[in-house]
UniProtKB/TrEMBL annotation:
It catalyses: 2 H2O2 = O2 + 2 H2O. This is Catalase. Belongs to the catalase family. HPII subfamily. Residues 1-28, 505-527, 655-674 are annotated as: Disordered. Residues 23-411 form the Catalase core domain. It comes from Streptomyces melanogenes. The keyword Glycosyltransferase does not apply. The lineage of its organism: Bacteria, Bacillati, Actinomycetota, Actinomycetes, Kitasatosporales.
Length: 696
């Protein structure tokens, strides 16, 4: 099937650099670009050197303003395909025919940090999708958590100012652990539900490919007869929802600041195309008031136990951009980019976004013609009466650019009844002009508690740890104490556990009356296909270790989709126990445990493992253990674990006896398979909790 977006983009490709010599912007060939034109060898540079001036001028103007939020991101192209026709509730053309693939571009992002900040910070992740549909572009500009911090868009500048680096010293970069954010949170309890998500492991995803996406607001589907149905959008990743451990995430910021970006790029290059299922929660209009929260309140979710998520299609990302700036940086999303069949609701946060996104693109992309940029161009035909403006790249012909006209034959004509024109949903709205929040928006605690109640023990512990970390970095004790007070209205146990860690008095009273529980909110229920596809496994090797029998294990893991890399103290080859050379993929100094999901230790000669004297290898294994990662050890690798203080019987540590101890010198294929099977299960489980501490 042709990809209409890819075909369109071919028209915008730069000249093949191999097709001719270097030129100026005017196409004049250049034979010298290393010395400016000057008077004598040591004299002043001449103004008439147009190549020099053009080169510097262009360079001076290479930067555009970064996004005010979501500045750091990574994007990819792909397609969306519905499972079946959704005509029963929406007329959107791209949701009708399971044979039609609609091209998409997706940009994932962090919120707080600038363009050059690290990926693995504690933050919400943006998940913005542009569908290039036959009826025009539809943008679903979502996040990886289903609720937002505020209810009304007029508070957005306040919230973002509190979250961003503090203005006097521009600290901290890419972090929420500072006074102004928590000052705001403690004074604005509507933030609490989203704050609970931010303190959970959802805010440190292992991969963009392993996180959910949410439209957050309640939108409206509209069918061909004009009937509306409320809808919440959900993206569910095929690989399950997986997170990093906080300590790991922090170290990763230094080891690989591009960790999530690289992961997305590499997976697509390797043909491991990331995949999500699109699901919808549908609420008939007559049930608008059937819930104990307001559907227009973006700080609330609809528990899946009340309204199940109905899968309607899948999205696959299968193409990396050609050029980061041209595509990922210049892509312009807008919540008001809608197609017939999808409409807004009166959610006051959404209404504000409908203003903000267009406004921000005008500044960022330098004028109103940004929809002409290749990444933003619809594949649907565009015929407007808009003219001129900076960077106009369309040559409009003819004398008329107004409606009505007779001189241009009345063209472009207004769409007729059958031309799929966008019609806003008809809704009667009546009221006084007021600045007031509806009473139905006032409960800020029940769903924050619902989230807390729904967590497994390890998730709860991580949330407490996160609060202690964040508030422990807050200098103002009054802010710490006030935050604990508001947390007490969510859950007394949580507030007391946090208070204990940050040196403020435990709240006298704490809520224990919020009883709700929604198992669908726990990561425990989001294991995806349960596979180990694309997990990165480090095989630690060194001269003298047993490498002869590793091939079947590596093959078995690779055939299940994992990537196994042999890591040794030096690059090149190591000499295995049998004297043969074994190819090294990475040298230890260039990597670290935080860049892998699991570790495998081979067998070796009796006695101490050669890895024991390698500090980086020792740290590798100990870090993997501390971070709950699966560890597989064969033969003397098990003894190595013991020497490193790792409990060989801890959760997720998988061992097999030495080949030599069985006397045959080689693991039988049964043993190998049995070990690989157990190790695969441990890798699929991702992280293992409740391990005894490392012995020193
Ligand atoms: Fe955004 N948001 N936002 N936001 N947002 C932007 O638009 C804004 C909100 C989200 O990869 C900006 O093009 C307001 C919710 C994503 O290019 C800006 C409000 C959700 C992205 C803006 C919100 C989001 C943005 C900055 C409150 C999840 C990155 C640059 C009323 C449903 C898109 C830009 C990309 C970006 C405004 C709240 C998601 C300033 C005023 C809720 C994923 O227009």
């Amino acid at each position: 099937m042709t990809d209409a977006k890819r075909t369109q983009q071919e028209n915008y490709q730069a000249q093949d650099p191999a097709s001719g010599p270097l030129t100026t912007d005017q196409g004049v060939a250049v034979d010298h670009t290393d010395d400016s034109l000057r008077v004598g060898e040591r004299g002043p540079t001449l103004l008439e050197d147009f190549h020099f001036r053009e080169k510097l001028t262009h360079f001076d103007h290479e930067r555009i303003p970064e996004r005010v939020v979501h500045a750091r991101g990574a994007g990819a192209y792909g397609y969306f395909q519905p499972y079946e026709s959704c005509a029963a509730f929406t007329q959107a053309a791209f949701l009708q025919d399971p044979d039609v693939k609609t091209p998409v571009f997706v940009r994932f992002s962090t919120v707080q940090g600038p363009r050059g900040s690290a990926d693995t910070v504690r933050d919400i992740r943006g998940f913005a999708t542009k569908f290039y549909t036959s009826q025009g572009n539809y943008d679903l500009v979502g996040n990886n958590v289903p609720v937002f911090f505020i209810q009304d868009g007029i508070k957005f500048p306040d919230f973002v100012h509190a979250l961003k680096p503090e203005p006097h010293n521009e600290i901290p970069t890419g972090a929420s652990a500072h006074d102004t954010l928590w000052d705001f949170v403690s004074l604005q309890p509507e933030t609490l539900h989203a704050i609970m998500w931010l303190m959970s492991d959802r805010a440190i995803p292992r991969s963009f490919r392993m996180m959910q996406g949410f439209g957050v607001h309640t939108f409206r589907f509209v069918d061909a007869e004009g009937n509306g149905t409320f809808v919440k959008f959900h993206w569910k990743p095929r690989l399950g929802v997986r997170s990093l451990v906080w300590d790991e995430a922090q170290e990763c910021q230094g080891r690989d600041p591009d960790f999530n970006r690289r992961d997305l790029w590499q997976a697509i290059e390797a043909g491991d195309f990331p995949e999500w299922e699109l699901g919808v929660q549908l609420v008939p209009e007559e049930d608008e008031f059937a819930f104990d929260f307001d559907l227009l309140d973006a700080t609330k979710l609809i528990p899946e136990e009340l309204v199940p998520v109905r899968p309607i299609g899948r999205m696959v990302l299968d193409r990396n951009p050609e050029n980061f700036f041209a595509e990922t940086e210049q892509v312009a999303f807008h919540t008001a980019n809608l197609v017939p069949g999808i409409d807004f609701t009166n959610d006051p946060l959404l209404q504000a976004r409908n203003f903000s996104y267009l406004d921000t693109q005008l500044l960022r992309l330098g004028g109103p013609n940004f929809a002409q940029l290749p990444v933003n161009r619809p594949v649907a035909p565009v015929r407007t009466n808009h003219r001129d403006g900076p960077h106009q790249s369309v040559v409009h012909s003819g004398a008329t650019s107004y409606t009505p006209n007779s001189l241009g034959g009345g063209c472009p004509a207004i769409a007729g009844a059958d031309a799929g024109a966008y019609r806003h949903h008809v809704e009667r709205v009546d009221g006084e002009t007021i600045r007031r929040r509806s009473a139905s928006f006032q409960d800020h605690y029940s769903q924050a508690a619902l989230f807390w109640n729904s967590m497994s023990d390890w998730e709860k512990q991580h949330i407490v740890d996160a609060f202690r970390f964040e508030l422990g970095k807050v200098e103002a004790m009054s802010v710490r104490a006030r935050t604990v007070e508001v947390l007490a209205s969510v859950d007394g146990t949580l507030a007391r556990a946090v208070a204990e860690g940050i040196g403020v008095p435990a709240p006298r009273q704490g809520a224990d009356h919020h009883k709700g529980n929604s198992p669908a909110l726990s990561q425990e229920s989001l294991r995806g296909d349960g596979s180990i596809r694309t997990r990165r496994i480090a095989l630690l090797v060194a001269d003298g270790l047993e490498t002869e029998h590793l091939a079947p294990i590596r093959e078995a893991l690779s055939s299940r989709g994992a990537t196994v890399e042999a890591i040794a103290p030096h690059d090149g080859k190591i000499t295995g126990l049998d004297g043969s050379g074994y190819v090294v993929d990475r040298a230890l100094p260039t990597v670290a445990s935080v860049l892998y999901d699991a570790v495998l230790l081979p067998d070796g000669p009796p006695g101490d493992s050669p890895l024991l004297t390698e500090e980086a290898a020792v740290r590798f294994v100990r870090d993997a253990y501390r971070h709950g990662k699966p560890i597989g050890a064969l033969g003397s690798g098990v003894a190595l674990l013991e020497r490193l203080g790792v409990a060989a019987d801890a959760h997720g540590v998988v061992t097999a006896p030495s080949a030599s101890s069985r006397g045959d010198g080689a693991p039988s294929s049964d043993d190998g398979e049995e070990f690989t099977g157990r190790f695969t299960e441990a890798v699929a489980a991702h992280r293992h909790w409740n391990r005894p501490a490392l012995r020193h």
